[in-house]
Write a structure and sequence with these properties.
By secondary structure, the protein is an all-alpha fold. Helix content is 64%, strand content 3%. It has a two-stranded antiparallel sheet. It has a two-stranded parallel sheet with strand order 3-4. Helix 7 packs antiparallel against helix 8. The longest helix has 52 residues. The chain is rod-shaped, with a radius of gyration of 47 Å. The N terminus is likely disordered.
């Protein structure tokens, strides 16, 4: 074969090879472009999904409205209003108590000893008076002299008369019972705001062994010395309730429906409340008619 005939074939071969290379380059460029496009699209979709997930949903709802679909929080949400309400309720449910302070009981019992000594001295003074008896009447000067002896507690005239007409033996028994009752009560826990219950408990403990006049006119002022007015009123009401129930029940339990009649029970709601608590009466067993003060 001649040189002239071979050259054109080589030329076509080289052209074909060159075309193939160009096609391969175009293909590689096209593949790179498609991969780039797919990657960009994938990244864009991922960013869109992420944005959707982190973007809070806006709900067109109002207070009291029932939503039409389930609303799920994307994170832990603290309901501050409900939480504070529950905390406040839990705090109120805890009953505060008084913790005995060292030395307080000794101080109270020491004061009681001194008051007893003054009471005893006042009775000794009364015994020196002419015509002394358990029913003797005392003049204003004699009562004033007795008050000079009893300085730790203020007694009104009728209270001082009760003290002066008390025998020293009865006063000694009262002191012994009162000392033990106060010591036992103060050794326990007293709920704040219910101090009157502690006073009433002491009154009940010694009430069965103490003359009524002495209990009301001497012991009651003694226990109420320095107490709040509301505690004094509550303890007096409790004493009335205790004595009333004791007189009516005669040792038997009081059950069933209870009617509260008369003026004091009509106008003194706290007195009725003491009866409710003492008798453990629920609302279904309380009868408080209108114009209860007109019943007799």
């Amino acid at each position: 074969m001649s040189q002239a005939s071979v050259s054109p074939m080589r030329v076509r071969f080289h052209r074909l090879l060159h075309q193939m290379k160009q096609q391969m380059q175009r293909f590689r460029h096209a593949m790179f472009s498609w991969r780039t496009l797919i990657s960009v699209i994938g990244i864009a979709l991922a960013a869109l999904l992420f944005a959707i997930n982190i973007t809070p949903v806006r709900y067109n709802i109002s207070v009291g409205m029932v939503p039409t679909h389930t609303i799920t929080a994307t994170r832990d949400v603290v309901d501050e209003v409900t939480t504070e309400s529950l905390r406040s309720a839990a705090e109120k449910a805890v009953q505060p108590t008084y913790v005995m302070k060292d030395g307080v009981l000794d101080s109270v019992l020491s004061n009681l000893n001194q008051i007893y000594a003054q009471f005893d001295a006042a009775i000794q003074y009364a015994e020196t008076l002419e015509d002394y008896s358990s029913t003797r009447r005392y003049t204003a000067d004699e009562l004033a002299k007795a008050r000079e002896i009893v300085t730790m507690i203020a007694l009104k005239d009728y209270q001082m008369r009760t003290l002066l007409n008390t025998t020293r033996s009865d006063l000694s028994d009262l002191y012994s019972n009162l000392f033990d009752a106060i010591q036992n009560t103060m050794s326990g826990y007293i709920i704040e705001g219910s101090e009157h219950i502690a006073i009433s408990n002491i009154m009940q403990i010694i009430g069965y062994r103490t003359d009524t006049n002495l209990l009301q006119n001497v012991v009651q002022p003694l226990l109420n010395e320095g107490a709040r007015k509301e505690d004094i009123a509550a303890s007096i009401f409790q004493s009335v309730v205790t004595q009333t129930i004791s007189g009516l029940a005669c040792g038997r339990p009081i059950r069933g429906h209870i009617a509260f009649l008369g003026g004091p029970l009509q106008y003194l709601s706290e007195l009725r409340e003491r009866f409710y608590l003492t008798l453990n009466l629920d609302e279904d067993h309380r009868i408080v008619p209108q114009n209860a003060h007109l019943f007799y």
